[in-house]
Design brief:
The structure is a single chain. This protein starts with a helix and ends with a helix. The mean pLDDT is 74. 95% of the residues lie in helices and 0% in strands. 0% of the residues are buried. It has one domain. It is an all-alpha fold.
Length: 62
């Protein structure tokens, strides 16, 4: 019984390593994706803020 489990473990070692690498890889992609979204949101907010300032300046100039 134990020997059988040991054999399974040694056989699945490469599969297990692959799954670890997949997890790291997908975590990396997920983090990058979230970062891109946050950057886009922040960039849009800052752009809108600048546009608001331009509009305010335009109103005050008139």
């Amino acid at each position: 019984m134990y020997l059988h489990i040991l054999q399974l473990l040694t056989q699945n070692k490469t599969v297990y390593m692959k799954s670890i690498w997949n997890k790291i890889f997908f975590d990396y992609i997920y983090i990058r994706f979230r970062l891109v979204i946050y950057m886009n949101v922040f960039y849009n907010i800052s752009n809108n803020y600048i546009d608001l300032n331009k509009i305010r300046k335009g109103i005050s100039l008139e």
